[in-house]
């Protein structure tokens, strides 16, 4: 969402966002420190913290509030925005956000009910792909604007001609991401070099994958990295591999395509990977292995995919174009 914040700043808006760190305003973006009370946490009253953060948001007197992804706090935010006649825009993140029962909302099951209730109160939605759009319409009767993630070209790292890794896997480590598929791929092809980048979304799973990777000599387990570090690692890689059960529109796809790195993926947001020939889609480990070998051994096909990426990327993920579509969608 930082790209969206910077895009709004570029268009002359005052932009506010939350942070859990002590920091000064930067690049025209004003930071609001999130409320964090150890006492409320011990008393299991985090809902109070959510409410206080939402009140602080509304006190900035915004014209538009943008919220992304499933969360309990959206319930209070939707209530306050309706009361103050502020337009609230819900941006989808994961494909599970709009499928009742599948939402990724931590903590008590009641958090999911708070989130589901909030969706019925929101009128303006932006989805990342056609699958999210269809789910939102099916389960909540809400229409939406499909806008894939945007990209600012000044965030592209320098291209590195010599590639350190034949394939790289990048995501937060939790079971639905199925990083073990990638470990198996690396283990079965010791003549190639692989890398995993990701932080511990689930500590037990993180430790499990880290231990598995330590037994594979040609696989580097790099742990959590910053956004710019991920850019650098992608510039050093030939292929990005995604093994998730589901996604929305992964930012890592945009980072890879900005560096002309094709993808081999188990998810295909709005069917674009196949429609524009941006890489390969696979359903299981066997297909993953087959497509990996095809891609690393066919230079002509690899270069054609890179050419497709350049054309698709320049035409589909422009921040200025997306901003214009969003503002039109909001009727402003």
- Terminal CA distance reads 21 Å
The portion of residues forming beta strands comes to 5-15%
Strand-pairing-aware structural class: alpha/beta
The CATH topology of the largest domain turns out to be Rossmann fold
Q: Describe the main β-sheet briefly.
A: 6 strands, parallel
Shape: globular
Give the tally of β-strands: 12
Order of helices and strands: HEEHHEHEHEHEEHEHEHEHEHEHHH
Radius of gyration from the CA trace?
Answer: 21 Å
Poorly predicted ranges = none
What is the total number of structural domains? 2
Record the SSE blueprint.
Elements: H1 2-10, E1 15-19, E2 29-33, H2 38-42, H3 46-58, E3 64-68, H4 74-84, E4 87-91, H5 109-121, E5 124-127, H6 130-140, E6 145-146, E7 167-170, H7 179-188, E8 194-197, H8 203-214, E9 219-223, H9 227-235, E10 240-242, H10 251-258, E11 263-265, H11 272-275, E12 279-281, H12 285-297, H13 299-316, H14 319-329
Parallel strand pairs: 1-2, 3-4, 4-5, 5-6, 7-8, 7-10, 8-9, 10-11, 11-12
Helix pairs in contact: 3-4, 4-5
In words, what does this structure look like?
44% of the residues lie in helices and 14% in strands. It has helices at residues 2-10, 38-42, 46-58, 74-84, 109-121, 130-140, 179-188, 203-214, 227-235, 251-258, 272-275, 285-297, 299-316, 319-329, and strands at 15-19, 29-33, 64-68, 87-91, 124-127, 145-146, 167-170, 194-197, 219-223, 240-242, 263-265, 279-281. 35% of the residues are buried. The protein is globular, with a radius of gyration of 21 Å. It is built from 14 helices and 12 strands. It has 332 residues and is of the alpha/beta class.
């Amino acid at each position: 969402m930082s790209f969206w914040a910077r895009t709004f700043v570029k268009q002359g808006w005052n932009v506010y966002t939350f942070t859990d760190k002590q920091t000064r305003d930067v690049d025209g973006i004003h930071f609001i420190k999130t409320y964090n009370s150890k006492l409320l946490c011990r008393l299991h009253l985090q809902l109070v913290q959510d409410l206080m953060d939402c009140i602080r948001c509304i006190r900035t007197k915004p014209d538009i509030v943008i919220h992304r992804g499933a969360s309990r706090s959206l319930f209070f935010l939707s209530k306050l925005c309706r009361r103050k006649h502020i337009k609230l825009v819900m941006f989808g993140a994961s494909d599970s956000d709009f499928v009742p029962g599948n939402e990724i909302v931590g903590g008590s099951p009641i958090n999911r009910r708070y989130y589901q209730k909030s969706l019925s109160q929101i009128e303006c939605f932006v989805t990342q792909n056609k699958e999210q759009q269809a789910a939102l319409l099916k389960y909540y009767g809400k229409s939406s604007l499909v806008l894939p993630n945007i990209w600012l070209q000044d965030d592209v790292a320098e291209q590195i001609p010599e590639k350190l890794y034949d394939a790289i896997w990048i995501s937060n480590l939790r079971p639905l991401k199925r990083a073990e598929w990638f470990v198996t791929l690396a283990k079965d092809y010791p003549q190639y070099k692989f890398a995993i980048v990701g932080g511990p979304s689930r500590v037990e799973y993180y430790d499990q994958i880290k231990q598995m990777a330590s037994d594979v000599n040609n696989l580097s387990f790099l742990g959590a990295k910053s956004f710019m570090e991920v850019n650098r690692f992608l510039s050093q890689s030939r292929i990005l591999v995604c093994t998730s059960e589901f996604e929305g529109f992964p930012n890592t796809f945009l980072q890879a395509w900005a560096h002309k790195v094709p993808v081999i993926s188990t998810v295909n947001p709005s069917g674009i990977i196949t429609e524009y020939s941006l890489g390969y889609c696979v359903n299981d480990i066997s297909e993953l292995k087959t497509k990996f070998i095809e891609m690393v051994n066919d230079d002509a096909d690899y270069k054609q995919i890179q050419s497709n990426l350049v054309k698709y990327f320049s035409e589909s993920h422009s921040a200025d174009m997306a901003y214009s579509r969003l503002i039109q969608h909001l009727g402003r």
